[in-house]
Amino acid sequence: MQYRKFGSTGVNISTLGFGCMRFPSIEGTQDIDEEKTVPMLRRAYELGVNYFDSAFFYCNGNSEVVLGKAVKPFRDKINISTKIPVSRVGATSDYRSYLEKSLKKLDTDYIDFYHFWSINKQMFDDVMLKYDLLNEALKAKEEGLIKHISFSFHGDPNDLEYIIAKAPMLETMLIQYNILDRSNEKGIEYVASTGRGVVAMGPVGGGRLAAPTELADKIGSVSAKATYELALRFVLGNPNISCALSGMRSTEEVEKNAKVMSSDIPFTEKENAEIRESLEDLKKFSDLYCTGCRYCMPCVKNIDIPQIFYLYTLYNVYGLKDHAKALYKKYREDIEKDGKEGLVTSCVECGACEKKCPQKLQIREKLKLVHSVLS
Ligand code: SF4
Ligand code: SF4
Fold first, then answer.
1. Segment (H or E) for 200
2. Ligand 1 pocket, mutate which of 308, 340, 346, 363 (most atoms under 8 A from CB)
């Protein structure tokens, strides 16, 4: 495993971070399958991963619990990152209340990197400043309950300068960045230039690049054998990124990713140039760029928006046309059989989903497109 300096925090973190938002669940339930998850997390530690990223609501609120249990034997050797749901804060005291709940769920005395979760300028002004949450964070840091004050960002990268100027105590940032979506590249460069650490989320494009595709071949002579390798090494090819988070779901995936991060990264200059040139050819990959974050859910008509967009990815990006159509047919049949809502055709165009989508997708329009393509 390779390690990088994490801004000015004095901490060196592994270039591969464990995103704890997609733990495997027990079949037919939404409960985390601990028998699979705990060994997977411990294997990651054995392979050198020292940065584990959770959030208060991941996995129905149980991600922190299982993470805490898994890392208990080596708690002091790793960094736990988790997040306060800023959008749910309605009073200054909520900061301490969420922090105490997270500490309890994680069964730990301190959190290494405590993030203000999924902020943008509006949330920064209307919640963080309004309720004096930065001061609460400083107090928690003084008491040793958190080691570092962090934030995850889902806003306009042009607002980062404003946020950092108003909140110099913010030490690290978590932000979307991958080979298909480099829109935050300037913002990342700015934040890193101020001495702050940056972690990339979505390095394999919400999983779309983790599946077998011919993308690595299409990039030309770059020495990446598989697309997930290309995607990870591309992200770490950016010297402003300390760590790429991957929401791994199996021990096999952990081992595969750890192997990539132990190899010779970043890409050479020549390889980087080739990749950037080839990106033009990949535009079709991005015409419906859904990361599967599920922030758009629930839909008032119970339409599983991320699942439907995933089927479109299977069709359009991976070329698995028949498979995608068959899965879409099954999706519709299951809904009809149960007499529930959830068909794309039942969308009432309320627009609630679009307001919550960090990728600013025109969800209503795209749902119609996917329905017409897959029907
Ligand atoms: S616009 Fe359609 S898909 Fe979006 S929340 Fe409303 S009903 Fe659901
Ligand atoms: S449509 Fe937007 S909010 Fe919903 S899962 Fe995709 S990226 Fe996330």
1. strand 197-201
2. 363
- Mean pLDDT, 10 residues at a time, over the chain (375 residues)? 94 95 87 95 97 94 96 97 96 98 98 96 97 98 98 94 97 90 89 97 68 58 66 85 92 90 68 66 63 90 93 74 87 87 94 92 95 95
Residue 159 lies in a domain: yes
Ligand 1 centroid, distance to 101 Cα (angstroms): 32
Distance, CA of 230 to CA of 225 (rounded, Å): 8
Q: Are strands 197-201 and 243-246 parallel, antiparallel or unpaired?
A: parallel
How far is the centre of ligand 1, averaged over its atoms, from the C-alpha of 2 (Å)? 43
CA distances from 27 to 31, 32, 33, 53, 330 (A): 9, 9, 8, 24, 18
Phi/psi-derived region of residue 66, left when phi > 0, alpha when psi is between -120 and 50, beta in every other case = alpha
Does one domain contain both 74 and 167? Answer: yes
Which domain CATH number covers 96?
Answer: 3.20.20.100
Please tell me whether residues 309 and 282 are part of one structural domain. Answer: no
- Tell me how far apart the alpha carbons of residues 335 and 75 are, in angstroms, rounded to a whole number: 44
User: Of all protein residues, whose CA lies closest to atom 2 belonging to ligand 2?
Assistant: 357
**C-beta of residue 139 within 8 angstroms of C-beta of residue 210:** no
- pTM reported for the whole predicted model: 0.74
45 is a domain residue: yes
What is the rounded distance in angstroms from the CA atom of residue 68 to the CA atom of residue 303? Answer: 33
- DSSP, collapsed to helix, strand or coil, labels residue 180 as coil
Residue 354 alpha carbon, nearest atom of ligand 1: 4
Of 4, 18, 5, 16, which is closest to residue 260 (Cα–Cα)?
16
Question: What amino acid is encoded at 289 in this protein?
Answer: Y
